């Protein structure tokens, strides 16, 4: 009887597997149908491009756009038929960036226009409906080179004869997003001249023209190194600008829109926004909120020379009113390429002690060792030690027992993060 029941169970399980398998095949077909169709269309377009593009041409990808591709297939003018925008470099024309457009008709693709930008470097590209008329505009940013040379932002609209340029302006950086929460996309540009005046400007796009909505001054001495588009802790849209200032310092300026105008979030003397060494803003915990990186001097190093201070890094979330919250602290060892995340319990409560081929994190109050990292060549490592990580030549380990408030897995190699 038990054997009979067992066989019944096996049969039902087998049927379940078969039925589940059939369901998965169906789902897989549904999931792959669209990508396959898109892939077939891409291949068809590429065959057309092989005949149209000049010999030796190269596809080019915009450096700062989210979509890292050269061929964009969409119904741009909402006429029910698809258009294609192709970004390429013509090698015969001193490597000029071109915008080629194709239109689908009777299942064939025909060339509509081919525009030479006059520039060699493709910085930015967007297909966005920025005036809420249901049609998408072509937004492209180019420059002569990828150096600090001025860039040119062009906005095109699609007409029967192809793309028609409506806007041309110089810029240093650009972000396209809804900054004032009115349901329409805004264009935020950074521009100006170092040592004279620098600013962020917010525009709306109406009737083929940019309308200036607000402007805020930026530090005139700042050399903008890194810009990140993201959100503040309260969900408000913001642009984070990390800039070199002086010999080695860095300033972060946060631009947002509040009460009818652009503002800079935070106070002028905020020690997180102004830091001793370069640290870039980024979303360290993948929650969609950008953290600003700062640093502070641990206890015992207040009088030390700058080069000798083992700064502790601090990643902070800001709100539109300038209030802030520390999300994470880290001790970073750039020379050995690792970092240690510090539990919230120990934020601003520990210091650093360097030892021979190692480092310890120590409580400020009772001098207890909270965490220890040592490193050695692989051929010198003793397997009984607690291994924390390894690289090609080095093993990181600890001689100190794991603390319940500060676990071994707080150790990270920098390559794990970048």
TrEMBL record:
Keywords: Signal. PROSITE patterns: PROKAR_LIPOPROTEIN (PS51257). It comes from Clostridium estertheticum subsp. estertheticum. This is VCBS repeat-containing protein. Residues 1-20 form the signal peptide.
